[in-house]
Amino acid sequence: MPVESGNSAAARQAKQKRKSHSLSIRRTNSTEQERSGLQREMLEGQSSDNLESFMRMEDSKLPLSLRSNLLDLFSQIEREFENLYIENLELRREIETLNDRLAADGQTFEGADLAKGALKTKASHSTSQLSQKLKTTYKASTSKIVSSFKATTSRAICQLVREYVGHRDGIWDLSVTRTQPVVLGTASADHTAMLWSIETGKCLLKYLGHQGSVNSIKFHPTEQMALTASGDQTAHIWRYMVQLPTPQPVADMSQTPCEDDVDFSDKDEADGEVEGPNDCPSVRVATTTLRSHQGVVIAADWLVGGKQVVTASWDRAANLYDVETSELVHSLTGHDQELTHCCTHPTQRLVVTSSRDTTFRLWDFRDPSIHSVNVFQGHTDTVTSAVFTVGDNVVSGSDDRTVKVWDLKNMRSPIATIRTDSAVNRISVSVNQKIIALPHDNRQVRLFDMSGVRLARLPRTNRQGHRRMVCCSAWCEDNASCNLFSCGFDRQAIGWNINITALLQEK
Fold first, then answer.
1. Which pTM does this prediction carry?
2. Could you give the C-alpha distances from 273 to 164, 421, 463, 466, in angstroms and in order?
3. Distance between CA atoms of 218 and 426, rounded to whole angstroms?
4. What three-state secondary structure class fits 51?
5. Using CA atoms in the order 292, 297, 301, 305, what is the torsion angle rounded to 10 degrees?
6. What digits encode the pLDDT tens for the residues 444-464?
């Protein structure tokens, strides 16, 4: 009988050991698969009784007390998810109720599905930490959030009166004439400036003299002349003559409270071309062209009396010109970066310029022999505009989301600071009521008084207001129907009627 060698016996033992180990692995994998399947069934709706059965079926070596504690923990988790499920159903019912209410008013909004959007509401629920975290995640999961559904309590009435549509690109600036006839002027990136009838919304005149974007428009204090600044590195002075059409009846629009309007849509308008007015007369040649800048002329304004103008440019300088001779009188240098705006005092020879260097400067030309300058560093980002009021105040707005009110007699620190949630563009101040209108990057226009108290927010829904960035605002004290105008990159200007009495009562 043959005898196995030592090597052969060792090989057979190793083979049997590997086979036994393989069978053990298969049994272990099978056990793990069965266990995971049972756990999935449990999480998909099995009750605590099934969980207890599962624990009993499991060949576990855990002590009975530890297994009981584990069972209690699973029961708590199940109750937590049950509360969360109930709360989810309540939120869905609330959304359906609000949708039905909006549908009854003929309004709809995107993102009604809870999985796609969220409802920013003040309704509070007594929930656990887990459900609260889930709600927070829902709120942060989308940018299309309904602003608010809470009832308004403001007595301030801000009514959209008319829209002025005809430009083919965004509108940078607007202004209202200081003499009769009172018309609205707009400056657009489509290389044109337009004059509009405030009452009818009809284009009265189109200026076509610039070769670049028209960034600013201001009217002469006493004559029918307009001053425009452009990206073609020039400023133009041109004369206009317009005849106002017969006013048409204004459409009956319900008065809309200003505070906390419902924002139903975040969708921009289509980018298709907007047909401009075909029968609008045009002016193609400027009376005077000012050509001393080496960069984009971003703004221009008339000094008191209308015999001189000041321009602000991206070449970091502001220039003072004589209107009659077109000669450069002074070059105002000192800013470290591009200028963004310039404004003149309504009754004194004072000029304020703002810049991307986070400062604005006050230039004093009241003494003909010398001119002084003061630098103010009240902001932490680009100063987008600084304007005078009738009194001794300057109001500055910035990309740092603040607006500051300054006293010319003591400019060391602002007398009021307004903090907002979006960058502020070209602001304006009502001459009579001293109300500040703030146009924002987030398409809102807000109203504040000189002490920094918020008065109102203009309506902005999917049917009213601006659909893109609001670039500028301008007050008109001489018109009863529209006393505030705004313009933006949605290619339109809007005329608003602000109930000033209601605003003051609200304050």
1. 0.67
2. 16, 32, 20, 18
3. 13
4. helix
5. 10
6. 999 999 999 999 999 887 678
